[in-house]
Amino acid sequence: MKYQLLKFVIIFTVPFSIILAQTSDNPWTIGLGANTVQIMDDSVESKFGLGPSVSIGRYLGAGFSIGANYGINKFDIDDINTDYTSVDAFLKFNVNSNKFSPYLIAGYGLSDFGKKLSLKGVFNSQGAGRTITGGVGFDILVSEKISLNIRSTYRFSEEKGTYKHLQHMVGFNYNFGQGDSDKDGVPDKKDSCPEEPGLKEFDGCPDTDGDKIPDNKDSCPEEFGAEIMNGCPDTDNDGVADNEDECPEQEGLVELNGCPDGDGDGVADKDDECPKDAGEEDNKGCPWPDTDGDGVNDNIDACPDQAGSAENSGCPELSTEVVQTINELATKVNFAAGTDRIQGKTVMNSLNEIKKLLDQNPDGNLVIEGHTSSDGEADANLELSQLRAAAVKSFLVNLGVNSDRLKTEGYGEERPIQDNDTPEGRALNRRVQFRTEF
User: Fold this and answer.
1) Which CATH number fits domain 2-176: 1.10.10.10, 3.40.190.10, 2.40.160.20, 3.10.129.10?
2) pTM to 2 decimals?
3) Mean pLDDT across the stretch 335-349?
């Protein structure tokens, strides 16, 4: 009989593919099969018999499952035909989740050897005993939902009318329970797109354009594209996907959103009003003109209609001799201590002479610098120097000098020309000076 059982197991095992058993994808299982019982008691003689069995189980996670078994059988014990019933709850642990899945099982239940009493009920015998079980088995799936289950358990019972015995089971389990809303064969739990039928290789998401990039990761799901372009086409092969390319049919530069720049000035041809001449972005891609031809472009030329020097921001300069003469005249322009009031007997003559020199030299501008002595606070002196420069400008404008030719700056006590420790030095430091840089 032992050889017959081994043959029975081999016949059921060999033909089937070895694939994954019950997991969280299909957590529930219902099993139907056959069982046979072998009494482990040398004082009695028993023969094998076959009977049906049924089970139900629920996968918990980390390889553990719980469930219940129910089996019936009929065999001979000491030539007496015996009805056998078993029922128990079990805890099952799958050693791994590979394609071939062996497991350990332990449980607790009842074994009934059918010695009848007059009592009514399911276990109305004196051969029913509480039973501790433990054993080994393995699961093999034969399809996505169907698995083959083979198990041997040792059943320990010492109550009167019962026997320690082995129970061997072979059967098929139907594994189910995980939802698949879109019916694409990928359980909702693992489906990245549970409401759209998709492909298993893309975790249940579709690939509408067939570019091997699932729609949920494809920036252009309806247009065939490359992975490097996030699934979008690049018609002109310039490294900028068409959906981001402002010039999708012209090979261009990434930094210009896929548009060409023929003159290399950093302005895309489509925005460049001078696409063949390198220019400036601020001038729509065109080079800045130099209206007065002085070598200083109009955009930085303070006097774009008058030829001047780069040192003077494109404006004409007064000669060094003229500026020197004006500064000699300015030495006679003095201020009362702590004020911007111009004082001195010859000051009017000096300012009139400066005005005449400017009239005689109409090209060129002047900066009027205001200065102070070190008397008082530095912040107050800086403000005072600005007021002194403004007072001289106002005086000259009142005399008829064009105000556009004059600019004022104040330097406070920062640039003394004499020692501030003497009254004479401080008086000379309260002054104005002129220069040509505008």
Assistant:
1) 2.40.160.20
2) 0.42
3) 84
